[in-house]
Design brief:
The complex is a heterotrimer of chains A (about 450), B (about 120) and C (about 475). Chain A has 20 helices and 14 strands. Chain A is α/β, with parallel strands linked by helices. In chain A, α6 crosses α8, α6 packs across α9 and α8 crosses α9. The chains are: A alpha/beta (about 450), B mainly beta (about 120), C alpha/beta (about 475). β8 of chain A pairs antiparallel with β16 of chain C, so a sheet runs across the interface.
């Protein structure tokens, strides 16, 4: 227990800082110690799901195609940054950063699932594992003899998690999917961005949201299944996560509204349909006018949140908008669409000769909620996120000095943690296959030469 | 929308979002001829016709004969960039922005111990 | 679709196919696996099966932002007994409705109390209890609750509960098995913990998400927020992961609870993929790239004949298939692409200019094709594609209706409600929806009598003192 003795008067903030200190993570036990996960996954949805378990201490074994590994290793922003080597066989190529973030803390082995000998390896590992995460097309593993129907015969305690776009049954089961398709068809894409009258189009959430967040939903279900196995039944199960289904789950009032009134939720740009003021406004000036980076030359933006009558009055006072204050003093008047169309431009007019920091300091002084829209450099260098370990320097054993995201959440006794970003393809063949499949160095050499592993 | 300049054979790529429903002028990146055109739903409904005056919107990108790239200030719209000197090709990196070793450039077999770069195993300065 | 001539048609407007219709004409071998999945996963069997978290009791004391509500509704779908603790009069979120339009709210047929669709959607399977934590007596009641809870979730301003004597330091002494979870936007500690903004849904802007979403400035775009309180959904999901990990550790190892902290901003920082590493390698600042992708080509949404169309094919096999489909109608476009030496290597296609060329030419074909036509043609080549769907289309999409992604429930309080179902589809312990929201304080009688032994006198006294 991290309870402080009552005699010391430690402030709550100090208590939290000590309790959640990212530097102390490695001095504490891991929640999923002893849980073994096979991640037979590619792209982001499946890999990220397994990686959340790896952050919690599970031994996650990522199995990729020999030599070149999975597809995501060959993606990187604008084709510029790569981390070398891709594998010991192809050191002149690197892994693109598209792979980073979805595979931390894992062990990397290579197996060709197409070959009977490769399938036999998977069965050997599955017999000793607690979880399988896979995102091949539905039925592919079943055909190869390593699907849920076969694995549950070998290991009835295993939780088998399939993740994908549309699910393995139903009229659309054969459709392939990616994150952006999950967003497009699940419904959040069509609602995001400016409406047509503001000159906007439907917009994608920049991150591979349906993938990375979908992986969390998969991991959540796995954790619940492990709880049920360990605490209640002793049995494994099969879970199926469709990313398009996940996106449809998060549409807030859109489905109830449509079902009752036949009204389709539309886009509302950077404002909020239910609160006003609660939106992103443009400020006229860049915070870094002398920077040569085009991202820093852009004008600033800031999220302003003052939707109660009291907060709105403060906002109007701080921005000198007394006319707005009397006209829109009441919540129900203010939140109307036609009011919003008047209020936000008035705020932007006030902010036109300011940077986002200047706007923030005025609003901070007035006690009005706000948050400057930070770019990735501002986030990475912010002392708040650095102290909390949200973004941290990682001394990666293979690739060296990298900034890396920390785990998303904090636990006082068994904190999730970051050990390494990822490793080259097949880097742990010897360790894992020696340990779990009983392969000798000779076996490994032969299998590597055949490209079975 | 593809605007193939009849004068200089440059392929001007009028990228879909801004040019989908468009009425105004653009300019050939190869010979700077100004064209007026109107598009509806990505299809040209009038023009392109040679025109005079101000250019409303430059092409996103253009290519001359033999797939030679034409882009740059006054020719195409600037691309979104993460840095001033974005090159869109793999760039060798050996140090992080704070100056520590980083394995960001191609290696040879003899540079490795197992799957790791030798200089990482050795703990290079 | 559903609103025709001012009348709202019953959902679904188009009937859902039966399994026989869906699998008609397939060989036994081809339908073997999907039918196996149907036999173990169909949602109509959910109530024949146990629930993963049925032994767990969660007290969700969060208000005014949805991060906690989202977290606890996931746990509720997985079977936990979730007691939603609201201030007397109800969580302010109950009153939210688009543009303040009262006519879109849902009215309780007995009390006439109204609730917005957003709040209702996240109140699934939860018990509604009122308790005023601003009073001493209310806090004493919470301490009694703490004895019976496995999990408590709160989102008060940092340190508020500790000051009140009901924070983690105090409750963990009353109940050492308790898992105590704080959720918020920026955190309970660190330089910005007390900044205005930590207690409102502002996390999206503090993590690089808003800056990176939308069209680039060069294309006329601005930083763009999600229409949804999306960072709260993701943050709530991470909170639920933390809670379940703590629960597993309690059951399997320690017998004790712990302190969990989750924020919406850090949840997004975790999943902003390569932004941080990229910056550390060469100083890059992630730019916006609209509906295209910085790291994959073809992988984008572009306009088409009747809306917006996603086409994806990040590697060679799919690349050539896509252009073959385009080439059926525009052979010159296919020739131009295949003949371009700058588009031969997968990695070379990522360059900005190559992406502009790719999508400009793809749109030559898309402009003649509706979403349905484009999808049909690309599907024949097994290329992932699909149109951007609006909510009316999502609700009527055959595959979603068949699998029950969208469903209608008959609420005893609010009548028929259309909603998004849980994606926790499973063989042995599937997630499920039991009821969708209740009026404020509806479960006071049940919960306070069952857990705390309240009497008639207690109720009347505490109600009068505005404690419950």
């Amino acid at each position: 227990m991290a309870t402080a003795p009552t005699a010391t008067k430690q402030s709550f903030e100090e208590f939290c800082r000590t309790t959640f200190d990212p530097k102390k993570e490695f001095g504490k036990p891991e929640a999923l110690k002893g849980v073994r996960v096979l991640s037979m996954t590619q792209y982001i949805l499946g890999p990220s799901c397994a990686s959340y378990l790896a952050e919690l201490g599970a031994e996650v074994i990522k199995i990729e195609a020999p030599r070149r590994g999975e597809a995501m290793r060959h993606t990187t922003p604008f084709n510029e940054p790569f981390l070398y080597p891709l594998s010991k066989w192809i050191p002149e190529r690197g892994t693109g950063l598209g792979f980073l973030g979805a595979n931390p803390n894992e062990y990397f082995i290579s197996v060709d699932f197409h070959r009977p000998e490769g399938q036999a390896i998977v069965k050997k590992l599955a017999a000793k594992s607690d979880v399988i995460v896979e995102n091949y097309r539905p039925g592919t593993f079943d055909r190869w003899g390593i699907g849920y129907r076969q694995i549950r015969e070998i290991n009835p305690r295993l939780v088998y998690c399939w993740l994908g776009g549309f699910g393995g049954w139903g009229p659309g089961r054969v459709r392939a999917s990616y994150d952006i398709l999950g967003q497009a068809q699940g419904g959040n894409f069509g609602m995001t961005g400016k409406p047509e009258f503001m000159g906007g189009t439907p917009s994608k959430h920049t991150i591979w949201l349906a993938d990375y967040w979908g992986g969390m939903m998969g991991a959540l279900q796995i954790l619940a299944a492990l709880y049920w196995r360990d605490k209640v039944s002793g049995e494994g199960t099969f879970t199926e996560y469709s990313q398009v289904h996940g996106v449809t789950r998060q549409l807030e009032y859109a489905l109830p509204l449509y079902g009752r009134h036949g009204i389709t939720r539309e886009r509302w740009g950077n404002w909020d349909t239910q609160l006003c003021v609660h939106g992103v406004i443009k400020t006229g000036k860049s915070s870094y006018p002398n920077s040569d980076n085009p991202q820093e030359q852009e004008e600033g933006y800031i999220l302003v949140s003052a939707y109660t009558d009291e907060a709105f009055a403060k906002l109007c006072q701080a921005t000198g908008n007394s006319a707005l204050a009397s006209k829109y003093g009441k919540t129900e008047e203010r939140v109307k669409a036609e009011s919003q169309v008047e209020i936000y431009p008035a705020l932007e007019k006030w902010a036109a000769d300011k940077t986002k920091e200047q706007v923030a300091s005025t609003l901070d002084a007035a006690g009005v909620n706000n948050q400057p829209v930070w770019n990735s450099k501002e986030v990475a260098s912010n002392p708040h996120w650095q102290e909390r370990g949200a973004v941290r320097w990682l001394d990666d054993p293979t690739f060296g000095d990298l900034l890396h995201q920390g785990p998303a959440y904090k636990l006082s006794e068994t904190p999730p943690r970051l050990k390494w970003a990822f490793k080259p393809v097949g880097a742990d063949n010897e360790y894992i296959l020696g340990k779990l499949a009983g392969f000798s160095p000779d076996d490994l050499r032969r299998l590597e030469e055949q490209e079975t592993i | 929308m593809l605007l193939a300049c009849p004068k200089c054979k440059t392929n001007n790529f009028l990228d879909p979002y801004p040019f989908w429903n468009f009425k105004g002028t653009t300019q050939c990146a190869g010979c700077k001829t100004i064209y007026s055109l109107q598009t509806v739903g990505g299809a040209c409904v009038s023009g392109p016709e040679a025109a005079q005056g101000k250019v409303d919107l430059l092409p996103g990108f253009a290519e001359g004969p033999g797939h030679t790239a034409i882009s740059g200030d006054g020719l195409t719209r600037p691309a979104p960039r993460a840095r001033k000197d974005s090159v869109c090709k793999p760039i060798p990196i050996t140090r992080s922005i704070r100056g520590n070793p980083l394995s960001g450039s191609p290696l040879k077999k003899e540079d490795l111990i197992g799957s790791k770069p030798k200089f990482m195993v050795a703990g290079a300065k | 679709m559903a609103a025709a001539n001012g009348k709202v048609l019953p959902w679904p407007a188009v009937p859902t196919p039966t399994p026989e219709e869906v699998y008609a004409g397939l060989s036994d071998q081809a339908k073997d696996y999907p039918l196996f999945l149907e036999s173990i996963c169909r949602q109509e069997h959910n109530f024949e099966k146990p629930e993963a978290l049925s032994k767990i009791r969660v007290l969700d004391c969060t208000t005014t932002m949805t991060i906690g509500h989202w977290c606890s509704s996931q746990l509720a779908e997985l079977g936990a007994e979730v007691i939603q603790v609201e201030p007397p009069g109800g969580d302010p979120l109950r009153k939210l409705t688009p543009f303040g339009r009262k006519q879109y709210m849902f009215k309780d047929k007995d009390s006439g109390e109204e609730v917005g669709g957003h709040f209702l959607h996240e109140m699934r399977n939860k018990l509604s209890v009122t308790l005023n934590l601003a009073t001493e007596e209310g806090r004493n009641i919470l301490k009694q609750f703490a004895v019976h809870a496995d999990v408590i979730i709160e989102n008060a301003p940092p340190g508020q509960w500790d000051e009140w004597g009901i924070g983690y330091r105090q409750l963990s002494q009353i109940n050492p098995r308790l898992i105590y979870c704080w959720v918020g936007q920026l955190g309970q500690w660190g330089p910005r913990k007390d900044k205005p903004g930590n207690v409102e849904p502002t996390g999206q802007a503090a993590c690089g998400f808003v800056h990176g979403t939308g069209d680039p400035k060069e294309f006329g775009g601005v930083p763009t927020r999600s229409a949804l309180w999306m960072a709260d959904h993701v943050g709530g999901t991470t909170a639920a992961m933390g809670i379940l990990a703590a629960l597993l550790y309690r059951e399997n190892v320690s017998g004790k609870g712990q302190f969990v902290e989750a924020t919406s901003a850090e949840a997004i920082i975790r999943i902003l993929d390569y932004s941080w590493a990229w910056h550390s390698m060469d100083g890059s600042i992630r730019p916006r790239f609209g509906n295209w992708d910085l790291a994959i080509n073809i992988y984008a949404v572009n306009p088409c004949k009747d809306g917006y169309m996603m086409v994806g094919g990040g590697h060679d096999r799919l690349w050539y298939r896509i252009w073959r489909v385009v080439g059926d109608e525009y052979p010159a476009v296919e020739d131009e692409i295949l003949g371009d030496p700058n588009l031969r290597e997968v990695a070379d296609r990522l360059a900005m200019n190559q992406q502009i060329k790719t999508y400009t030419l793809l749109c030559e074909w898309l402009k003649d094709n509706s979403r349905a036509d484009a999808e049909r043609k690309l599907s024949k080549q097994q290329v992932a594609s699909g149109g951007v769907l609006y909510v009316n289309e999502v609700a009527e999409y055959t595959h979603f209706k068949y699998r029950g992604h969208v469903a209608e429930t008959e609420s005893p309080h609010y009548g028929k409600i259309l909603y998004g179902t849980t994606p926790f589809i499973q063989h042995k312990t599937p997630g499920r929806m039991k009821w969708l929201g209740r009026p404020t304080g509806y479960d006071n009688q049940d919960v306070y009598r069952r857990l705390l032994g309240f009497t008639r006198e207690d109720f009347s006294r505490l109600e009068k003192a505005k404690v419950i």
